[in-house]
Design brief:
Number of strands of chain A: 15
Largest sheet of chain B: 5 strands, parallel
Distance between the termini of chain A: 40 Å
CATH architecture of chain A: Orthogonal Bundle
Number of domains of chain A: 1
Order of helices and strands of chain A: EEEHHHHHEEHHEEEHEEEHHHEEEHHE
Strand order of the largest sheet of chain B: 2-1-3-4-5
CATH class of chain A: Mainly Alpha
Oligomer: heterodimer
Strand content of chain B: 5-15%
CATH class of the largest domain in chain B: Alpha Beta
Shape of chain A: globular
Strand order of the largest sheet of chain A: 11-10-9-15
Chain lengths: 436, 255
């Protein structure tokens, strides 16, 4: 007997995506399809000046524009041999904190949170409203950081190759401290709240991948590491990837090639927490201990806990940066464009965002590759869904459908992010990328 | 009084303008009290059927499916409002309109034949009647509140159609074009952003699109005198509102 369920347009995720699952003779096939229309960023970036790249790639995603700006300017600075001063490096980190706070708060409280309370939206149930309000106040604070440094929270305008167009006043930064301090205290309680939510036990053996930097929780710098032995500079990781176009799903899927095999992997908050837990502040680690959470977290349903941990971390880190910040003499350093190629990876709220650029002698883009976190997680997500359905195969389709939706949401997919998205109808075998 | 029904829709875009709705933050919960939210995929599960009093539409039209969908939305909507550069002007992805779509597909996809897309990315107003257009990349949260508030008060929203220069002068921000000969699009661009870029010492790059009656060629002459080539000038306009700036120049479709 063949049973089939379909979610045409998944709600409470960023962008347009659907799920199709087919159960035939006890065998499950799952397709996490994406029907976001293609936008061809890699095509129209060709021939554009390096100074357009951060503004353009930011437009890939309204939730994580800073991630795109960060990966882009770091890659370009690597090509030009630009070294920025410590305060600039720290301000960029502060900007990223703003985005992590805003994006994590959005997902925890407005998108995924309602699932744990049987609510259809953050405002559909009276008892959920106070929780939604807590989330909105975190989100507002994240947006304030973004607006202070970049003019506005969505597509901020001050980031550029070499530094910033203008630096914030120390006084304005300091004025954020009282609210950040209060929010940090609250965020510790929120980690406890997230840890107490009911989770299905679904421990999986998976390869967690994130950046890892010597003394800090990873954002803009570090090597790529995994719990299964990867430890490579950024460029080396890109060489390990295989991107394929899959007819059934609509994004290019990324897998790691190791020993002749291609395997899925997980990027994002769970991976970052698992691989960098010792760099979290003592206060947060204490709370984890108190709630009985000892990373590695190997249950993808618990993404909301990892996001709560990082929300708290980002508030703490923002305070640290603001306290030590001393303005540099100039908002940006001078440099000369030159020809070259570079790969850079930064940690977007949803995981590693890979950018690779080839520039000509005037600094115009010859070629580029952009690999967002969501397309890196799609293969893992499909396995996760398939396993879940396989394990609950006798249950009613409605139940399977609803739970599958929750699983997809727990990955916090960012569909607009995937610049590779294609719109396809029929199903058939994967096609490998030509230039691989 | 029955609460007016509102829907938020997305076509080809980055989600940033829908996010501006969620960024209303505390006002968001007021909004939920004042309107009945009938459709908002990014934030709620079950959409409601039937007519809408307002549809906020994000994103440009770039596939056949979207073209049909926007007509369906129009048919059941009293006021259709576009939010942001994609919906109002085709967005950054309209850069494909001046290139070969087949080349574009080949650059990104190993099997370009599998991709269904229209050769052009176009604003909503190319397909259906639009009652009100909100510009910006992203749209400003203030203009969103103003528009929704005006609907409740049954008045026209007070959204400026004049240039960014007016706002800049009012805020006494030094002119980057005059003082530093930087290629600022302020003179031909709509006000609305709150003078973001000039306040942060960078020239305007046109998030809010051409102002009413913009004399773009005249501004480009100023840029040329400052040493910018024709090619540089063209690229300055070919950003998130490329379709509208080219249209305003009366040279739509030519590079």
């Amino acid at each position: 007997m063949k049973r089939l369920f379909k979610v045409d347009y998944l709600s409470r995720v960023e962008g347009e995506t659907g799920i199709t699952a087919e159960i035939q003779d006890g065998k499950v096939t799952v397709r996490a399809g994406v029907f976001e229309a293609p936008r061809f960023f890699e095509s129209f970036l060709r021939g554009r000046h390096y100074s357009d790249v951060a503004d353009f790639t930011a437009r890939i995603c309204g939730i994580c524009p800073v991630a795109y700006q960060m990966s882009a300017i770091h890659a370009i600075e690597k090509i030009f041999g630009v070294e920025v001063e410590e305060p600039i490096r720290e301000l960029r980190r502060l900007l990223y904190c703003g985005e992590w706070i805003e994006s994590h708060a959005l997902h925890i409280y407005l998108l995924q949170g309602p699932d744990f309370y049987g609510a259809e939206s953050a405002w559909s149930k009276k008892e959920y409203l106070p929780i939604a309000k807590r989330g909105l106040s975190f989100k507002k604070l994240g947006n304030r950081i973004l607006a202070l440094l970049g003019g506005r929270p969505i597509h901020p305008v001050s980031v550029k190759v070499g530094g910033f167009s203008k630096l914030p006043e120390k006084k304005a930064l300091l004025s954020l401290l009282p609210d950040l301090g209060e929010a940090f205290e609250e965020s510790l309680r929120e980690v406890e709240w997230a840890a107490r939510l009911p989770f299905q036990d679904h421990t999986m053996d998976m390869e967690c991948v994130s950046l890892c930097a010597p003394r800090e929780y990873p954002m803009n710098h570090g090597n790529v590491i995994s719990n299964k032995g990867i430890n490579t500079p950024m460029g080396g990781f890109l060489a390990m990837l295989r991107e394929s176009q899959v007819r059934h799903s609509t994004a290019l899927h990324s897998k790691i090639r190791k020993d002749g095999l291609e395997s899925p992997y997980l990027v994002g908050p769970i991976s970052r927490v698992n691989l960098n837990v010792e760099k979290l502040p003592a206060e947060i680690r204490e709370v984890l201990k108190k709630c009985g959470i000892s990373p590695p977290i190997m249950n993808t349903r618990m993404g909301i806990i990892a996001r709560s941990i990082e929300l708290s971390y980002a508030l703490h880190e923002a305070m640290r940066i603001i306290r030590v910040y001393e303005a540099p003499a100039e908002p940006s350093v001078r440099f000369e464009p030159r020809e070259g190629e570079a790969t850079w990876i930064t940690e977007a709220p949803r995981g590693m965002l890979i950018h690779r650029y080839e520039l000509d002698h005037e600094g115009c883009v010859k070629n580029c590759t952009l690999i967002p976190p969501t397309s890196q997680n799609l293969a893992q997500l499909e396995i996760d869904l398939r396993d879940f359905i396989q394990n609950h195969i006798g249950k009613p389709l409605d139940f399977l459908k609803k739970e599958s939706e929750k699983i997809v949401r727990s990955y916090d997919p960012c569909i607009s992010c995937s610049v590779h998205f294609v719109f396809i109808k029929e199903t058939c075998n994967p096609v490998t990328k030509k230039n691989d | 009084m029955k609460r007016p029904r509102i829907g938020v829709f997305k076509f080809t875009s980055c989600d940033g303008c829908q996010l501006s709705v969620l960024n209303l933050e505390e006002e968001l919960l007021d909004l939920v009290g004042l309107f009945q939210i009938a459709y908002f995929r990014e934030a709620m599960d079950r959409p409601l059927r039937g007519h809408l009093d307002i549809a906020l539409v994000e994103g440009s039209i770039s596939t056949e499916r979207q073209r049909n969908h926007v007509i369906e939305i129009r048919e059941r909507t009293r006021y259709l409002v576009t939010i942001g550069a994609c919906a109002t002007s085709g967005g950054l992805q309209a850069l494909r309109n001046w290139a070969s779509i087949e080349d574009y597909k080949k650059t990104v996809y190993p099997s370009p034949g599998m991709i269904e897309t229209l050769p052009c990315s176009t604003p909503i107003s190319d397909h259906v009647y639009v009652d009100y257009e909100l510009w910006g990349c992203p749209v400003s949260s203030d203009e969103l509140s103003e528009t929704l508030g005006s609907f409740l008060l049954d008045k026209r929203p007070g959204i400026p159609g004049y240039s960014l220069c007016m706002e800049c002068k009012r805020k006494a921000v030094p002119c980057l074009l005059v003082a530093r000969a930087e290629p600022c699009l302020g003179p031909v661009t709509r006000a609305g952003c709150g003078v973001l870029c000039p306040s942060l010492a960078r020239p305007c790059y046109g998030c809010f699109g051409p102002k009413e009656g913009a004399n773009i060629d005249s501004l480009l002459n100023v840029f040329r005198k400052a040493g910018f080539s024709d090619h540089d000038c063209a690229l300055l306009l070919d950003k998130m509102n490329t379709y509208s700036y080219r249209k305003a120049r009366g040279r739509e479709g030519h590079s």
